[in-house]
Fold this protein.
Amino acid sequence: RMLSRLPRSLRTHGRWAVSGFVAVTAGAALASSGMSAAGASTSPHTSLPIRAAVHIVPKPRGGLIHPLGSGNLINHGGPVENAPKVYVVYWGWTSDPSGEQPYLNSFLSSVGGTSWLSTVSQYGGGYTGNLLAGTWSDSATVPKRPSDSAVQAEAAKAASHFGTGTSYNVEIVVATPTKHSESGFGSRWCAYHGAVSSDPNVTYTYLPYMTDAGASCGENSVNGGSAGILDGVSIVEGHELAETITDPLLNAWYDSAGYEIGDKCAWLNLGDVSMSGGTFAMQPLWSNSAGGCVM
């Protein structure tokens, strides 16, 4: 594992899932690549700790894999989503060659109430009901290489479109189309989440077109052939969903090393989970009660 740190004074928000799929704090990763910090903002909980760290771990290639981080998750006092509502904006989509949109909609419509997501309840997170509160196909042109500031602006635009208000229970997933993704996607990370700087109680997830990255972001990591092409979509979004519920402003639940509920179990014992909308490839989540990763 390679771990580099930036000064706490950067006060960055934002968390990524890297290729190989350990989540990292986005602002620090962006700074190291010469890009603007993701989700950099002053949240209403400024007295609470804000981390600035980068966790870069390559995708496991076999052998014994252990959970990451150190010990159980710790409550750092920030808010938790007790009634999460997920809104997806499909920004500039003109084609969907892999069928990611219906797959993602089906996943988000059926993951609520599952035993897999119930793990978040021990941290005060809500997990029942249909979590997908709305979708929007925004026909506005998406840049070939959108910046994080552009993604945040699109998230804020979507929040206005949906009339979400300013609750931290709101999650905006900004999904960009095939061949339109931020620099670093697939080579260093797969997705990230943070708080919208112009509305820091509203969280956003940046979800690029996952199959563009192939196996680097989970394709066929559980199922072979055509059945596993979309494996990475549910693995990555599931990872970000659970983390956003339990650590929406990056000041709630994470361990002493900074790892969140999804980080600790990334790429560990992947498998299929049956839901009302079908069967989806997933990763385990960290359970304090079990002291380990549970599916």
User: Anything to note?
Assistant: The two ends are 24 Å apart (CA to CA).
